[in-house]
Amino acid sequence: MPDVFDVLGQDHQEVKRMLAELETGPTAATGANDNHLMLRKKMVEELIIEESKHEALEEMYFWPAVRDRLPNGDELATTATGQEQEGKKVLDRLDKLNADQPEFEELVLTFINAGREHIAFEETKVWPLLRGTLTGDEAVSIGDKIAAGKKTAPTRPHPNTPPSPGVLKGAGPAVAAADRLRDAATGRGQD
Question: Can you name the CATH fold of 4-186?
Answer without folding.
Answer: Four Helix Bundle (Hemerythrin (Met), subunit A) (1.20.120)
